[in-house]
Specification:
By secondary structure, the protein is an alpha/beta fold. The protein has a single domain (1-457), classed as Anaerobic Ribonucleotide-triphosphate Reductase Large Chain (Alpha-Beta Barrel), CATH 3.20.70.20. 44% of the residues lie in helices and 17% in strands. It is built from 14 helices and 13 strands. The chain has helices at 4-16, 38-53, 56-67, 90-107, 125-140, 159-175, 221-234, 240-269, 290-297, 307-325, 343-351, 356-363, 381-398, 439-442, and strands at 20-28, 71-78, 111-118, 144-152, 156-158, 187-191, 212-219, 272-278, 370-375, 402-408, 417-419, 426-428, 447-448. Strands 1, 2, 3, 4, 5, 6, 7, 8, 9, 10 and 13 form an 11-stranded mixed beta sheet that branches. Strands 11-12 form a two-stranded antiparallel sheet. Helix 2 (38-53) runs parallel beside helix 4 (90-107), helix 5 packs parallel to helix 6 (159-175) and helix 8 packs across helix 10 (307-325). The chain is globular, with a radius of gyration of 21 Å.
């Protein structure tokens, strides 16, 4: 049961502190749309998406008005498109992607995820086609988002898949050169990908999920920051465990609101409710930044010693508060550190206090990984593969989700500013302190075996 006082308390946060329902994402299983030819498959996919999602935006808007709670993004996530691409060509992959893009446009959502390949142990022909089609797919569609899972704690790291994806990222950047390589912002490489994540670009409907499901992503960096500031104003000498306790209470209230919205959307649509993902996903707005939370805690210079510990404190407290509030917490549920989408993080990178290497350390304890980071345009595939492998190693060794969403900006050099606009934000191109020297290791290919901790049965 939801208490009226809980909702009213959270309404204040919504109105004053940038709290919102960041995304309502409908997951749709499209495996049954497979037909003998791709034209028929594409029609079946479009028809099913229209049938399931035609009322999604309207109902979200109605519920948003009813409660006065902004629902910023309405999105779709389908089962992995690679399942429909076995025995197909790259041209047919593009046709499927365009059908997804058109269907998403017609039902009024802003993004659709699920152009996904799961390749931690090996690559099927369909998955190979999907990955190799990404340069043309991401340059010729507007709403389609892609993800590739290259590692899990159980399987280890598929280095051959990492190398293929790294080469693909270079090609996607070139194919979207006119937009500063923006296609790469719609492609994320995972280790231990979650199957119920409502946030793009990694959302998809994983095996074991319902035929159709509603997952909700609730965000609120501004709410957490203000809660910490109020605590410090009342008790300037408070300890870190007291700050963590305040974050937990705040996360509890946010999670309750997210579940309220998600369950009502699902009920009105007549589909299953999945999870509420309490992830502190920032936007470029001042006051809606995860970086500002660390500064409020006392890490005045982002990147200074202690920054990683601050990330760990925040991430843990958010998860504990959310888990106490609901039995349906899932997805990623923690703190994101997407550089271009967070003005405080972007500023720290521009000033040189927050390096790529420090960001990597922070990803060992944050919710996801290296996210929305701009790199020099001449960064080669071997270097990108090494970055992905390092991040995957953190995920595999620590049995957590990690990811890489990096953008080699064609023609750009370190320090150059790039602006994508909207929620994707802006930032400067980061410097890679040691961009060469590991190509021989990376290019050996093969597999990095799973760690001993994977043998849990």
């Amino acid at each position: 049961m939801f208490r009226t006082t809980e909702v009213l308390t959270t309404i204040r946060m919504l109105q004053e502190e940038h709290l919102d329902v960041r995304a309502v994402t409908m997951g749709i299983n499209i495996n049954d749309c497979a037909q003998r030819d791709m034209a028929a498959t594409a029609r079946a996919v479009s028809s099913k998406i229209s049938l399931k999602a035609r009322n999604l935006v309207r109902i979200c808007d109605d519920i948003s008005t009813k409660y006065g709670i902004p629902i910023v993004n309405k999105r779709l996530a389908v089962s992995p498109a690679s399942f429909l691409l076995e025995g197909r060509s790259k041209e047919e992959a593009l046709r499927l992607a365009q059908a997804l893009d058109q269907a998403a446009r017609e039902v009024g959502v802003n993004l659709i995820g699920g152009f996904t390949a799961i390749v931690q142990k090996g690559i099927t022909p369909g998955e190979q086609v999907l990955i190799e089609s990404l340069p043309v797919v991401l340059s010729r569609t507007q709403r389609v988002c892609a993800a590739v899972n290259v590692a899990t704690t159980k399987a280890g790291i598929n280095v051959d898949a990492v190398r293929l994806v790294a080469r693909t990222i270079v090609q996607v950047a070139a194919a979207t050169k006119k937009n500063n390589g923006f296609g790469c912002a719609k492609l994320v490489v995972f280790a231990n990908i979650p199957e119920d994540n409502p946030f793009m670009a990694g959302a998809f409907l994983g095996p074991g999920e319902p035929e159709c499901v509603i997952n909700v992503g609730v965000s609120g960096p501004g709410v957490v920051k203000r809660a910490i500031e109020r605590l410090l104003a009342a008790r300037p000498d408070c300890t870190l465990d007291e700050i963590a306790e305040e974050v937990k209470h705040t996360a509890f209230r946010v999670t309750r609101t997210g579940e309220l919205i998600g369950r009502e959307v699902a009920k009105r649509l007549g589909v299953a409710f999945g999870v509420v993902d309490l992830s502190l996903a920032p936007t470029p707005r001042v006051g809606d930044s995860v970086g500002e939370i660390y500064q409020a805690m006392g890490v005045r210079v982002l990147g200074a010693p202690g920054t990683t510990a601050a990330v760990a404190l925040l991430n843990d407290a958010v998860k504990k508060g959310g888990a106490f509030a609901s039995s349906s917490v899932g997805g990623l549920s923690g703190a994101f550190i997407p550089v271009t989408e967070d003005h405080a993080l972007a500023k720290a990178v521009a000033e040189g206090t927050l390096s790529l290497e420090k960001l990597e350390a922070m990803t060992a304890v944050c919710s996801v990984g290296l996210d929305m980071i701009l790199l020099p345009g001449n960064t080669n595939a071997a270097t990108l593969a090494g970055i992905i492998m390092d991040e995957a190693a953190l995920g595999v060794a620590n049995n957590k989700t990690t990811a890489v969403r990096i953008i080699p900006v064609p023609g750009a050099k370190p320090g150059q500013r790039v602006d994508f606009g909207g929620l994707f934000g802006s930032g400067v191109v980061a410097r890679i302190n040691c961009p060469t020297g590991a190509a021989e290791f990376v290019n050996r290919g093969g597999h990095i075996p799973a760690p001993l901790r994977s043998l849990t049965n």
